[in-house]
Amino acid sequence: MKSLINKTLKLFLKSKYGSLQQAIERPLQTQFQLLMNMVETAAYTEWGRLYGFTDIKSIEDFQKKLPLSDYDDLKPYIQKMMHGERDILWPGRVQWFSKSSGTTNDQSKYLPVTTENFDTCHKKGSWDTLAIMYQNNPDVQLFEKKSLILGGSLSHFKPHPETIIGDVSAIMIANMPLIGRPFYMPDVKVAIMEDWEQKLELTAESTIQDKEIVSIGGVPTWNLVLFRKILEKTGADHMLQVWPKLRTYIHGGVNFEPYRSQFQTLIPREDFIFQEVYNASEGYFGTQYRPDEKDLLLLLDNGVFYEFIPLEDLDSPQPRLLTLADVVIGENYALVISTNSGLWRYQIGDTIQITHDRPYTFRIVGRTKQFINAFGEEVMVHNTDAAISAACAMMNCTIKDYTVAPKYLNEREMGRHDWLIEFDQAPVNIAMFATRLDKELQAVNSDYMAKRGGNLALEELQIHVLPQGAFEAWLKFKKRQGAQVKVPRLSNNRKYVDEILQFVEEYQAHG
């Protein structure tokens, strides 16, 4: 029966791949038509009336009439929607809201997930990813065996209990078609529970004996936590001794490169498939297109209209906003989206680099709010990820996680970058590793190299080695555990670094 379902779904995915190719071949027309359809649909919402959607006939009209927005701009409207009001940013009443926690900011963001957005963005993006995976690897058996998804949690919005909030992964799991549920683990009740430690424990217990797991999904850091728990329980040396048919990993949320070597060690299989996706709370934007390239395909027909701000314009009161027709290959842009969930000209906070235009592909290079530029060095997340990956490979060590902040110069000491690193396998010599990491960062960022010249503005970076479990304990202390919660990689101030160092000091003092 499962074999028949797998064969049937392979035919379905083949048709999905054909539809995907049509959008690839007509990118500008696809985006224009999508925008006009969204504007027409939302014309008589509160937002549509406010900005005269009925008069918008072109992309130029759209850009002239609608302002750029961020979460604070849309928050009053989203709160109305969460309290059950209709026709605010999108027609109808919205029941589901994804909880965004791209970093560990104290305030969570709640983003509407309309029926249209769920069906034609999040769910469609998942089908597109599977269509590409089956096209590149016809022998995979995702719908003949089982997949494990380490998702988030759901809860009711107390002021209006009909509204349900949670991680977008949990919303996907809760709305999974009945035909798909036999192929996924753990069961829905465990998958969406709020107690993260209990979820990991029950997931480990329920999957240890299942030899049919062929695929896993979720944020790398939490999957590694689950793997270690399973290996501890079973005494196995690696995950293929537990799940011998494991073949694919669909991952996103953070840069995978610092974790790749750990996954390759834990899953020692030469034909293992790593499939990267860009699935955020706001929408499903991209998926790896070719197995031998790390670039992601920009999904153009999934309920999202894209605009791009050149990074040099980011702080301008009137930044240039480019459409797909105007982007330059190799340039970095802050991403702006308009979606069929009612996020209009919304600054998502991510920066991407356009890598090709036939088809349009990109790489995620950082966050607009996660960078270090305390000394004119302009260091971004993709710089630090690349540097620490290279340093670890060279010195035969692996990390669990890290965060970086500047140490500002004063009359007694030079400025530098302070790195807090929790190692999975620490280097033999931390001082040598710091020097290597510093050189690798200079190699990938010429501004940092210039500021390091002669130790005039910056001295060599300093590493603080955190004890095992420190980041996880800190996230638990902050009540920020979950499938999409991540340690902030970079900050232009010392808020996180000093807070974590103080927490670790108290944590160790109290055992």
Characterise the protein shown here.
This protein is an alpha/beta fold and 511 residues long. Among the domains are: 117-152 and 178-288, Rossmann fold, CATH 3.40.50; 371-509, GMP Synthetase, Chain A, domain 3 (2-Layer Sandwich), CATH 3.30.300. It has helices at 2-25, 27-41, 46-50, 59-65, 71-82, 115-136, 168-174, 188-191, 196-207, 220-234, 257-266, 381-395, 430-444, 446-452, 470-477, 495-509, and strands spanning 96-100, 109-113, 146-149, 154-156, 164-166, 184-185, 213-217, 248-251, 273-280, 283-288, 296-298, 304-310, 332-339, 346-357, 360-367, 371-372, 379-380, 398-407, 416-425, 462-465. The strands form 4 sheets. It has an 11-stranded mixed beta sheet. A 4-stranded mixed beta sheet has the order 2-1-5-4. A 3-stranded mixed beta sheet has the order 18-19-20, with helices on both faces. α12 crosses α13 (430-444). The longest helix is centred in the N-terminal third of the chain and has 24 residues, at 2-25.
Defining traits:
four-stranded mixed β-sheet; 20 strands; GMP Synthetase, Chain A, domain 3; globular; Rossmann fold; 511 residues; 38% helix; alpha/beta
Strand order of the largest sheet: 6-3-7-8-9-10-11-15-14-13-12
Secondary structure tally, helices: 16
The whole-angstrom Rg is 23 Å
Q: Give the mean pLDDT.
A: 89
Query: What about the largest sheet?
Result: 11 strands, mixed
Distance linking N and C termini: 54 Å
Helical percent range?
Answer: 25-40%
Helical/strand content category: alpha/beta
> What's the architecture of the domain at 117-152 and 178-288 in CATH terms?
3-Layer(aba) Sandwich
Number of strands: 20
The dominant shape is: globular
